[in-house]
Amino acid sequence: MHLPRLLFAAPMSGSGKTTITAGLIAALRQRGLRIAPFKCGPDYIDPGYHALAAGRPCHNLDSWLIPPDQIAGVLARRSADADLALIEGVMGLFDGYAGNDDTGSSAHIARLTATPVIIVLDARAMARTAAAIIAGLRDFDRRVKIGGVILNRVGSLRHAVLVQQAIEQTVGVPVLGYLLRNETLTLPERHLGLVPVAEPGRWQEWLDEAAQRVATTIDLDRLLAV
């Protein structure tokens, strides 16, 4: 598969994967790129945000429901007319359907499709410990390529620089940018997760702000070069 592709994962749910993925899809689309969006697992809520951002359907990549040897084919077919495929992961990077196996996880999808992983790290209330988390994710399964990190919910530029130095100088994984802590970008949730985009809401305004903030503090050129 020759199409450029990236998978956005995190150490745990609630780290901001959906916000950052949707914002990046919208920001890159504004650059004139055709983005094919995907979501790991059977989730039907998050794909609504990505479809809105991309202007095209978001497809699921679920290695539990779909035979694993067919996952790469689904990705290739559904992104054949795109310039770039962006995949949002599910839960934590290695969280699948069992505690002793990562089938169905973001890591499993990344391995099956040979897709580099960008870690979305909720960096609030931490500094050097962020480097230990990234090192653990990188070393847990070396078959999964960690291509970079995006810091979320940092308190200030100084905080972002502090965490970036810790990760890059200690672990050697590039930090591609950050998002400041901002309650206006926090998506509403309820028992099944996020509120579906099909329900009434100011979703386009939210998406426009997410795209603007992403384009301001995340290095899109470095991201595309991963």
UniProtKB/TrEMBL annotation:
GO molecular function, one term: cobyrinic acid a,c-diamide synthase activity
Domain of life the protein comes from: Bacteria
Pfam families linked to this entry: CbiA (PF01656)
Residue ranges constituting the CobQ/CobB/MinD/ParA nucleotide binding domain according to the UniProt record: 7-192
Gene3D superfamilies, A to Z: P-loop containing nucleotide triphosphate hydrolases
PANTHER family the record matches: COBYRINATE A,C-DIAMIDE SYNTHASE
Protein name according to UniProt: Cobyrinate a,c-diamide synthase
Organism in which the protein naturally occurs: Chloroflexus aggregans
